[in-house]
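Chapter review: from sequence to fold.
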Amino acid sequence: MYEDGLVTLTSDAPQVDGVGADDGSGPGGNARLTRVTGVLLLPLLAVQGWTILSISRLVTVHVFVGLLLLGPACLKIATTGYRFVRYYTGARAYRRQGPPPLLRRLLGPLVAASTVGVFATGLTLALVGHDTGPVPVLLLHKLMFLSWIGVTSLHVLLHLPRLFAVTRRRLAGQAFPVPGAAGRWAVVALALAVGTALAFAGVHLANAWRVG
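The token string follows.
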């Protein structure tokens, strides 16, 4: 039985086509990379949400974390997008894995679109400051955030049972290792490094928004 990048130790576990005998770039490796990136995003997003409670005082932290998030957020969109493309272009391993449940399939594009919207409006604000001309970018940023928090919260809640199940199976030793772990961790580290570099390079942009 295959589930989210883990092949449980059962007699009917598939062993070909990237399922079971996964080369690390198939659905197993992609699922684990997606899951690790998602777990990494949670505390960073929690910090970003905390800064909103006192944005005038914590605007520097808000800008820094927002820029840092760019790396892992782009990686998360890339891994889920890759799975989407591979499935709908007929890749055999991904077709055998099957599609996500309908609600998660419907939410996926909304999460991706709202994420892009939040970052696009946030970067615009950081770059141009208060002077955004006739376009109410700050209002757009707030609206995009509200839409993002709604769909993303539901997205996370829908994934929690699967995350707990996968974690329990791994702790119980009921899953085959998926090759390519070093490469996946290297990609995650690179995404964090890029985000961190952007954060340090752009944190000065918060000066335009600092009050007092």
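Two observations follow directly from the output. Residues 137-171 form the longest helix (35 residues). Strands lie at 2-3, 6-7.
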